[in-house]
Design a protein that fits this description.
The complex is a heterodimer. Chain A has three helices and five strands; from the N terminus they run βαβααβββ. By secondary structure, chain A is an alpha+beta fold. Chain A has one domain: Beta-grasp domain (Ubiquitin-like (UB roll), Roll), CATH 3.10.20.30. In chain A, strands 2-1-5-3-4 form a five-stranded mixed sheet. In chain A, strand 3 and strand 4 form a beta hairpin. Chain B is α/β, with parallel strands linked by helices. Chain B has a single domain, classed as 3-Layer(aba) Sandwich (Rossmann fold). Chain B is built from seven helices and eight strands, in the order αβαβαβαβαββααββ. In chain B, strands 3-2-1-4-5-6-7-8 form an eight-stranded mixed sheet, sandwiched between helices. The longest helix of chain B has 20 residues. The mean pLDDT of chain B is 94. The chains are: A alpha+beta, B alpha/beta. At the A-B interface, helix 1 of A face strand 5, strand 6, strand 7 and strand 8 of B.
Chain lengths: 92, 248
Amino acid sequence: MKIRVKTFARFRELVGTDLEVELPEGSTVLDAVTRVVSANSMAKEALLDENGAIRSHVIVMVNTRRLPNRNREQELLRDEDELAIFPPVAGG
Amino acid sequence: MTDNPMPGQNYPLRYTRQIPLIGEEGQDRLARAEVCICGAGGLGSPAAMYLAAAGVGSIHLVDGDLVEESNLNRQILHSSATIGLSKVSSARESILALNPGVRVISSPDWIVGGNAGALIGRADIVIDALDNFGARYELNREARRMAVPLVHGAVSGFAGQATTVLPRSGPCLQCAVPHPPPEEVHSVLGAVAGVIGSIQALEAIKYLTGLGELLSGKMLLWDGMRCECELLPLERDPFCRTCGEGQE
């Protein structure tokens, strides 16, 4: 299946945006994020923690629906889904 | 004197270019208002300057820090001449130089240990111009308890975000950002803080005058590198630690 990945701001600078990612059927949000960062160590560090989980502050949406952190990594993706990844910031 | 004077005719000339937009009633509402600005740094600077310029009657500045030279790329309330002064004193000088009609209340304090409620005091609206989520969550909790709206802003690099939290409806700041981004020394361009701080000032002006539509229930994400925005829909988190079942 093919999904579209949209990123924003710092994540966009790291991995690009409007990416088309080919994944096996039954792939999850975590599978997709892991694939997106696989070729870029800075992106990997920005998006995944040392255990390979999506960093808790990262906002993840599928088809414009925000996923709560609970169980979001195991959310199953379907063909033509849009996964969006946003980085909130903290400075002032 | 005519029976129907031009709108704003009896107001200071400095407001003549905005009274056609907000009306005399809007100008009066601003004059009666008190805005609490927590953080007199990159976001607090443009927010305070534009609120003072617009004629907000009382501005309460909260910041425990001193002015350092490294602040001056973005913190336009301060200047070379005020390095070493408390930020609230430095800010007070700038605000009164811009608009001597504003009452400036200065609190050289950090938001720690449950003092947020006392600092919010009688404010009609609070601007979150802080630089860390520990203090932001404290401010969010107290603003909600006191039923005072909170305008959140944050910046880093070329990007920023803003949302307005209404206490009696919609998601709170902790619903919007349940897990704080990692602590780091944030590099930021002054113009980026200028964009988000100005949005915060405008949200406060709209709330106080009753005009327009607020950034409530949505978060604006702004990417200055590409000059693009996203509006993320926000929902209340039933398990939120501030306003949901997970309350501490």
